[in-house]
Amino acid sequence: MAWLWGQNSGLVLWLPVALAGGIIAYFALPFEPGEVGAAGAALACVASLACRLLWPEWLAVRLGAGVVGAAAMGLLLAWGQAWRMPPFPDLPHRAVHLSGQVMGVEVQRLADGTQALRVALRGVRFEDGINMGMPPLRRSLSVRLRADDPARPIPGDGLRVRALLSPPAFPDVPGGYDAQRRAWFAGQAGHGRALERATITPAQVASGPAGWLAGRRQALAERIRAALPGTRGDIAATILVGADGVVAPREREVFADAGLAHLLAVAGLHLAIVMGLVMVVLRTGLALSERAALYWPCRQIAAVGALLAGGGYVLLTGAHLPARRSLLMAGLAVVALLAGRRPLSLRALAVAAAVLMALNPEGVIELSLQMSVAAVMALIAGFEALRPALSGWEHDDVWLRRVAARLAHPLLASVLAGSACLPVGMAHFGTVQPWFVLANLLAVPLMSVWIMPWGLAALGLMSLGLEKLALVPMGWGLGVVAWLAHLVARLPMARMGVPALGNVGLCVFFVGLCWLCLWVGRVRLLGLVPIVLAVLSPWMMTRPVLLLAPDARMAGIVTQGHLLTGPGTHPDPFALREWQRVTGLPSDVLPAEGTVGQVACHGGVCRVGDIVLVFTARPPAPGLCRGTGLLVNLPGTWGCDGVPSIGRFDLWRNGAYAIYRWVDGGLVVRTDRAMRGARPWVMRPGGAGLPNLPLAQAE
After folding, report:
1. Strands 546-548 vs 657-661: parallel, antiparallel or unpaired
2. What is the mean pLDDT of residues 454-478?
3. What is the pLDDT of residue 265?
4. I want to staple 192 with a disulfide (CB 3.0 to 4.6 A). Which of 62, 165, 438, 637 is the partner?
5. Do 184 and 680 touch, CB atoms closer than 8 A?
6. At what angle do helices 321-338 and 268-287 cross, to 10 degrees?
7. Whole-angstrom Cα distance, residue 522 to residue 526?
8. How many whole angstroms separate alpha carbon 653 and alpha carbon 552?
9. SS (H, E, C) 300-333
């Protein structure tokens, strides 16, 4: 207890951790808690507050009340956010004419190198079939226009097109990426592709500030790409105005392999550079005036001006979650500066994280918030722990040590942030980039001192039509960064595929990271134990021996360090990417005839041990069922007497399958439906949700 009293000033930092724990608990439940569960969580919040007020002098009561109350509040926030969203509509299964108002437009690069526009529509109505007369969709719909469509809609326009629609996809592996959950909280109904050219109706009235900003963003992106063609212009449009989808997928993969993918996403780094540049310019300008330098609070004025500029930059680039988190942190830093407190601290991060989780509880399980919190927490705690050593070297009489201390700052920042984000990348991508320190050590300073200053100058010159004067030098710097990315991506082991870190392992990692960063003293080093266990956990777990896609069109067999897929030689790229993320293995195709490792295929039937995988609808060959422990018949037209089987209807009903083999040889079958349970965002079998019709009171 005495040790806890010594940590008293840092105990409040654990409240956002408990809040996140309650949110994670809600999403981990295999069932919906409902109104009774929500009432229980609310009662726990009230009881915790009462205990805190009645026994404030008891440390154990304060700790217990804080943890229980914050966790219950997190569960309550997640439940409320889930149930305030409208239900999924039942989208037409055939091509249909639809109309709606354009919310946003982004450029999407196709696999053949061509470009197509993807438009987000609201108020969508269907104009033919049984869907006529229905009220407009309460959710947005994303439609990709044809590549040869000359239409160039802007936000606020009306759009009519004939399209083939699809609901959000089911997970390709139990416990994998859940597109339905993301679409549920994003207010999306699904996506589609246009079959004909679209008809545009120009907006008759103003579409509001959001529509005006989206239109300006689109126009500025086109001007940037016109003045700076090619990949450099695509990257410039991405980091200056938040243009989505304009960078080629291959180029994004190269940046990801080099550990530079964060440069292509507007987040804390870009906002810090923008605010830092504006603050330097304002403070220098004020210092030129003797009266301002002597009598005005120049530092505070420059900080407020930088915050306003940062807010404008966040709005211009689309106000994505990482940028909003960074802006909130920057706002807290400016407030601390005005109050004479330290601008950057773990308390500011705790407040920012708590606010973001209260506004968007679903962000806790998304990549952007996890990466942001891990990186910022590691940077703040790491530099606080190393400050005595760095400060001593910075003021040392030996000039070599002073230079080394200055050079150590970017190196330490790259190591701390990259190391903290590495397990998060393992969980979401199943990859590790060992050379990220080398790439960031050179690319980040170049982005700070050359690329972004010229980019801001280009935005300022656009009103005069002279943006090319600044974009060309900016392009030189972007060319160097792109060259560096390609160079690092070609190094040996630049991108290593590893088994994905599971949800439990990711939670263990964050517990260890919080323990390491939030406690004071040597006891914090105990946080290294769960961090190491979490990073090693993927190799401690058993890989699945068989994976089945939810549409029964694809199967994958793990054998001798490879993932073999079939039938056919062209597997679904989305399912294959997800399976490789989970297994961390290179892929190949199942042979039509022959043996690969423990897999023997003949006549559309593959056998691996006592598992028989059937791709053909023909009757079974004599003796096929002998010695079979599990039959997987994708066509689902026949089975073996007394043998457990998985068929097309089972996949339709239960979603994706993953079959594991334990050490004793027994098989364990896991399904997507069993793991996700009955939640509001889990669609019923067949991929459709509730019809877009008004429900009766009983319903």
Report:
1. antiparallel
2. 91
3. 81
4. 165
5. yes
6. 40
7. 8
8. 11
9. HHHHHHHHHHHHHHHHHCCCCHHHHHHHHHHHHH
Predicted pLDDT of residue 1: 55
How many angstroms separate the CA atoms of 648 and 440, rounded?
48
CA distances from 320 to 244, 324, 664, 682, 685 (A): 11, 6, 49, 25, 33
Q: Is the pLDDT of residue 395 over 70?
A: no
Domain ranges of the chain: 7-83, 96-205, 231-497, 546-676
What is the tens place of the pLDDT at every residue in 600-619?
Answer: 888 888 988 888 998 888 77
* pLDDT score at 699: 37
Binning the chain into helix, strand and coil, the percentages to the nearest 5 are 55, 15, 30
Name 233's Cβ contacts closer than 8 Å, sequence gap at least 6: 224, 225, 226, 227, 471, 475
Decide: 556 and 579 in contact? Cβ < 8 Å: yes
pLDDT at 669: 92
Is 396 a residue whose pLDDT tops 70?
no
> What is the token pair recorded at 381?
């705690």
Q: Rounded distance, CA 99 to CA 97, Å?
A: 7
Whether residue 529 has pLDDT greater than 90: yes
Helical spans, DSSP H, in 143-297:
179-186, 208-227, 231-241, 249-257, 268-287, 290-295
**Strand 562-566 with 555-559, pairing:** antiparallel
Q: Which of 583, 577, 546 is nearest to 669 (CA)?
A: 546
Contact 179, 129 (CB under 8 A): no
3-class DSSP state of 188? strand
